[in-house]
Amino acid sequence: MVVLADEALDQIPLIRSPKHGSNFSDIPVVDLSMPGSAEALVGACEELGFFKVVNHGVPVELAQRLEAEAIKFFALPQLDKEKSGPPNPFGYGNKTIGPNGDVGWVEYLLFAITSAPLSYTSMSFLEEPSACSFRSALKEYLLAVRKLASDLLRLMAEGLKIEPRDAFSRLVMGEQSEGIFRLNHYPKCPILEKLNCSLTGFGEHTDPQIISVLRSNSSTGLQISLKDGSWVAVPPDQESFFINVLTNGRFRSVRHRVLANGLKSRVSMIYFFGPPPVERIAPLPQLMGEGEQSKYREFTWGEYKKASYKSRLSDDRLGQFEK
Ligand code: GA4
């Protein structure tokens, strides 16, 4: 066992993997400017549940502006940041993830997002007049990414030949739909340089929502798990978005984690799109084969979310709804 002489690190699992794990060059890429992008998107969802989007129409500057604001916030004295926490579940969090004992080498801001009209949970630091540039960067970014998610969900319906074309997008764009936005900062950790391992930044998990849109700076760290259970590193690309999708069993939601290698800090921003709490989660009849039964008993997003918050990050959250 490796013992780190830093109390703050004691609780965080170390992962014995080479610092710069092998890069995975086969991440499916969906180019929104190309004909056939709907089919490419469906293929990627079936195969991996994870893909990269290019030519997405979101100006790179929007993400860069928000990233710069986030860096300013995370550079504040710890006590100032903590005025916006602890997350219950929204607010500023440091090392603790969720309510059930998960920890990681990460600090973050979690916002609840309502879609129509767009609004987000307030936090103590956002009330300051000096947070005006943060607020405007956040709003513009959320609006642009919301449009991207809606385009992707329409394209998915097109690729699956589902009518109406907004069958998926309306689930997550309505007044009652529940979005979450997460700004993560994985700080440098110089002590790791000497060890041939990484710290868990964000432990392995699947996202409970329907679609998540991730953008990070150019630091490595994100890994996904392939069907054979092996972990591969996703090469960072600050100009693209990485998409994680879940739809009722036909598409899988990819298991992923973030490692903090200690050398360079990583900043990521993820917008998670969920439906309204009363929405029933069930396979679309159009996607079921003849005589095929759903593997799961019926449940609402509200019930699923409640169960999620009782779980640990790495738990199989769908398992308890199996028939
Ligand atoms: C994983 C995906 C999102 O980051 C998140 C996470 C949430 C949290 O950080 O509060 C959860 C986690 C996530 C699933 C299980 C529960 C809830 C932490 C946790 C242990 C914001 C989300 O919606 O679910």
Q: Element order, helices and strands?
A: EEHEHHEEEHHEEEEEEEEEEH
Percent helix range: 10-25%
H/I helix tally: 6
Q: C-alpha Rg, in Å?
A: 19 Å
Overall description:
With 323 residues, this protein is α+β, with helices and mostly antiparallel strands. The protein has one domain (12-274): Jelly Rolls (Sandwich). Helices cover 23% and strands 26% of the residues. It contains six helices and 16 strands. It has helices at 37-47, 60-74, 78-82, 132-159, 169-173, 301-309, and strands at 14-15, 29-31, 50-54, 91-97, 102-114, 119-120, 178-186, 198-205, 211-216, 222-225, 231-233, 241-245, 256-260, 266-273, 280-281, 299-300. Strands 2, 3, 4, 5, 6, 7, 9, 12 and 14 form a nine-stranded mixed sheet that branches. It has a five-stranded antiparallel sheet with strand order 1-8-13-10-11, with no helix packed on it. Strands 15-16 form a two-stranded antiparallel ribbon. Helix 1 (37-47) crosses helix 4 (132-159) and helix 2 (60-74) crosses helix 4 (132-159). It is globular, with a radius of gyration of 19 Å. The N and C termini lie far apart (41 Å). It binds gibberellin A4. Gibberellin A4 binds at residues 89, 97-98, 100, 102, 110, 180, 182, 205, 207-208, 272, 308-309, 311-313.
